[in-house]
Amino acid sequence: MQKLMGLLRRCVEDYDMISDGDKIAVGVSGGKDSLVLLKLMAELRRYHNKKFEIEAITIDMGLGMDFTGIEKLCEELNVPYTVVKTEIGPIIFDYRKEKNPCSMCAKMRRGALNQALKDRGLNKLALGHHYDDAVETFVMSLIYEGRISCFQPVTNLDRMGVIQIRPMLYITERSADNFAQRFQLPVIENRCPADKHTKREEIKELVYELQGRYPDFKDRIFGAMQRLPLPEWGPQGRYKRPKDQE
Predict the structure, then answer these.
(1) Phi and psi angles of residue 102, each rounded to the nearest 5 degrees, phi first
(2) pLDDT above 70: residue 96
(3) What 8-state DSSP symbol labels residue 214?
(4) Could you name the CATH architecture of 2-239?
(5) Alpha-carbon distances, residue 9 vs 13, 15, 43, 73, 154 (angstroms)
(6) Domain chopping of the chain, boundaries
(7) Across the chain, which distance is largest between two alpha carbons, in Å?
(8) Spatial distance between the Cα atoms of 170 and 153, rounded to a whole number of angstroms
(9) What is the pLDDT of residues 115-161, one digit of tens each?
């Protein structure tokens, strides 16, 4: 807990993610990353020098997933929890029968999340993207789109009046996995029909292979994004090398 809290707090401070009085929604899908983020944000709320509130919000895709375990965790953490019912899954897979469903699914989920924030008077949305997600997104943009690009640590959605933050960018997937297992977080099995059959999964395997050949591969890419930097990727401080987590 202490090690990951230190990494999360450093990321929050490097990118000035939290201000006094913020009302932050934690997007909780039921996967390990979002649950790790929820627990860490609840802990950060207790002692951070800037006072903020958090709520957990889940977009129910209509795929028959049971969120009672998350509801119980939120009660233990004293975090308000809202499940937004949708038919996103059936619309994409049954009605439209999308051949490439991920893009449309992401847009619909973001729209539902942003509307939920607006309805509840929340001004920021915390997402569970971690260090490995950032590296994989960079490589995926380069290979499939021919662009040097990645999502931003802080994204201001002016039209919605929402700011997206990604506090786990200094935490590796391996560390998140270990944390979720150690604290027995109620991870829900992903019932999406496209799970494990996406371009991102192909890139994940490629990055894993390259990391095996070149041990500093991911660290160099992540560092390059900060040093170039990509838009909004220049940190105020210096991140802790992921290898120090192992």
Answers:
(1) -65, -40
(2) no
(3) S
(4) 3-Layer(aba) Sandwich (3.40)
(5) 6, 10, 11, 22, 15
(6) 2-239
(7) 49
(8) 11
(9) 889 889 999 999 999 999 999 999 999 999 998 899 999 999 877 78
